[in-house]
Amino acid sequence: MTYFLKALSLRERTRTMIRMQKQSMPQSMQELYVRARERVEAFVRRFLYFMYSGATYRLMLVFIVPYTAVSTCAVRYPFVGICYFAYHPVLWPSFMRVVAPLFLILLAIMGVWFTIAYPPQALIFLLLNGPAGLLSSALMVFHQACVIYGIVARTFFLKKALRNLFDMVLKLNGLEDLLANASVDFAEQVDAQFYTRVQQSVVYKLRARYRKFVLRMTSPYLLLKSLILLPIQFIPVFGPLIMALVNSVDHARAAHGRYFQLKGFTPRQTRVFTRRKFGGYWTFGAAAGVLETVPLIDMFFSFTNTTGAALWAVTMEKKERKKAARH
């Protein structure tokens, strides 16, 4: 009891001292003190909420991942996409239009990379492994060229074709009304004269087409991530498989990017949506990523994976509409 009274009296003395100090401060100093205290309290609240929510989320993942993986059965959609794409010839033109350009790009990258990278690597492998090193170095350079080709093709040439394919699958499954929610580009919202001038601007074309690529390349986090993970991709056989598992959720989220755009989701809503179906997105991304590690035909699997992602979006959308109709 005595200890409690001493502690209470110490607390009261401290409060009185702080109150006297505040009263002796100028008005401006008191305002600064109050603002600083409010900021510190707000920071502490945000930090505690972040730690609590992060720990809770990680604990929930132990239960969410298996449940959502089984309930969505998303791992089957990359393989369903192959069958659906094969049995619907109306989808083939979206792939056939890009076959010739992609083949020429592949030949160009192969020629340039073999000219630059094969001689030094062949010399090293020849010294280490003897004559067999010529073949192993050729296989390694071929794999490296395929990795570079995949990065270039997906960054600059496949985006529009995959988006059109996604929309076509939605139309074939009776979701034309969802396409009406597509966001309008900035250039379509301005007057006709300015729109014509913007269309003819080479700078605008380059900016509109490669803006996201430039932002990715200049982001410190993504740049550091690329520097760490990119060398893993060049490891034959196992490197692409490791990358497919590491980037599985991001890969699946990118495959559903068009669906999120049509739904009008904000970035925060997209993160919440993917977290609720984390297991499904992880299994879908892993299966799709493994298929896209097959050399030479990986671009074909990019189209079939997009088809599978669209079919998964159709399933989710129809379930959501049925649930809304019941209520």
From TrEMBL:
Keywords: Membrane, Transmembrane, Transmembrane helix. The chain crosses the membrane at residues 47-69, 75-92, 99-118, 138-158, 221-246, 299-316. Signal peptide: none annotated. The keyword Transmembrane helix applies. The keyword Membrane applies. It comes from the Eukaryota. It comes from Lipomyces tetrasporus. InterPro entries: Spore_wall_assembly. PANTHER family: OUTER SPORE WALL PROTEIN LDS1. One of its GO terms (cellular component) is lipid droplet. This is Uncharacterized protein.
